[in-house]
Design a protein that fits this description.
The chain has 5 domains: 1-52; 55-150, RNA Polymerase Alpha Subunit, Chain A, domain 2 (Beta Complex), CATH 2.170.120.30; 155-248, YbbR-like domain (RNA Polymerase Alpha Subunit, Chain A, domain 2, Beta Complex), CATH 2.170.120.40; 251-338, YbbR-like domain (RNA Polymerase Alpha Subunit, Chain A, domain 2); 342-435, RNA Polymerase Alpha Subunit, Chain A, domain 2. The chain has 5 helices and 32 strands. The protein has helices spanning 2-52, 97-101, 192-195, 286-289, 326-330, and strands at residues 55-68, 79-81, 88-96, 109-113, 121-126, 128-130, 135-141, 144-164, 167-168, 173-174, 180-181, 185-191, 200-206, 210-211, 215-224, 237-238, 242-247, 249-261, 271-276, 279-285, 294-300, 309-313, 321-323, 332-338, 342-349, 354-356, 362-366, 370-377, 390-395, 403-413, 421-424, 427-435. A hairpin with a 7-residue loop joins β29 (390-395) and β30 (403-413). The N and C termini lie far apart (178 Å).
Amino acid sequence: MHNQGFDETKNSIDEGISGGRSQSGTRRENGITMVLCIIAAICIWFYVMSIDSPTATETFSSVSVTVINDRDLAMDSPLTPISGTGSVIEVKLKGRKTLLNNLREEDIEAYVDVSEVQTTGKGAYAVVVEAPEGTVIEDYYPKEINVYMDKRSTITVPVKAQLNQYSLVSGYTVNLSSPTLDIDTVQVSGPESELEKIDRALLSVSFPGSITRSFYSTGPLMLVDANGNEVNTKYLSMSESEATARYYVYTTKTIDLNVAYKYGYFSENGTRVSVTPSRIEVKGTVEVLESIESHTVATIDETMIVEDGTHTYQIKLPDGVEPVDPGAAENVSIGISFTDAKLRKVRIPTSLVQIINVPEGKKIEILDTAMSINFRCTAPSGMQMTAYDFNITVDAAPAVNNGDQYVTATVTMKNGNTAEMYTVGDYSLLLRVSDAEE
């Protein structure tokens, strides 16, 4: 009895719990189903609106008008517009609401075609509007706009560059007024009334920071009038749209002046050479001057300097370099004095002269019986030099005409010229040229 009542009570409790759980699960499932239905309904609504949305109208109040002229590219085009482009009209379009909502003024094409106009001056011309795909033009206003037409012409204007917003380090300068440009002029085509305003094509250059070296700058060209005001280029075209300018940056530098020698015979203990002034201040581009520390005034041929003296030179500086004081470059003196390098003489009979390259069919006679040769030496052995220590050669190749004539003689030392001993001066011999006896 007792156990049976307990079991019945337990079964009743289990059934109540199971029934409660079943009702709770059903409510959750119903909620999820409802959310999914709402999402599906929204998606279907968007789909229907995009595919088959209601028809509506929309007004676009700032549609820009372009003036077109198909003859602009033809060199013989007689007329061209000088107004009209940039005018705005109001356009009312009809179409699906979703499509209209996504349109902008830029999507609507409006233009005036003046390619057939033959008269200059002001005229009212019809505006053509082309509706975007999927829409229909209900109305637009105004239907016409005023356009001014002028004769078309072409002029050539100079290209200039202007450096703005720059700073220079002390001691540096820049060629503001005369930069090097890759083009000197441009051709500008358009209405004559607009062309009359143009003075030049301007390249505006800016350099951030401090300028310490030469530089290039490339940029767009801008047409300006004589006062530097920009000319409206809406109806103008240029043969070149950009240019490149190179600005050279200059500085000064003091460099040494020196002398070079053709043979290197002037030894330090035998000859003294001085340059006055010994230094000079020059100016030039930074790039050129940074590689120059000195400059050679002249190259001296030691064999042509017979005695002490001062020789004045006008120096020629490298390209792109010039003296700060022009007079300093015109009066550079080179003083030469021979201390231990003594000048000696030796008399040589012409019987020791060798004649080479005698022209065919010619006879050569030396009319001089002897010649004096100068040589300079620091070595004691110079006192013992004789005629037999020298070679004298006459190249007779130029002696093709009969008669007496001077011909250059080449004099060398048999042991070769050195800094201690070398020949000095140039020499010639009087020759008699005649036909050779057969």
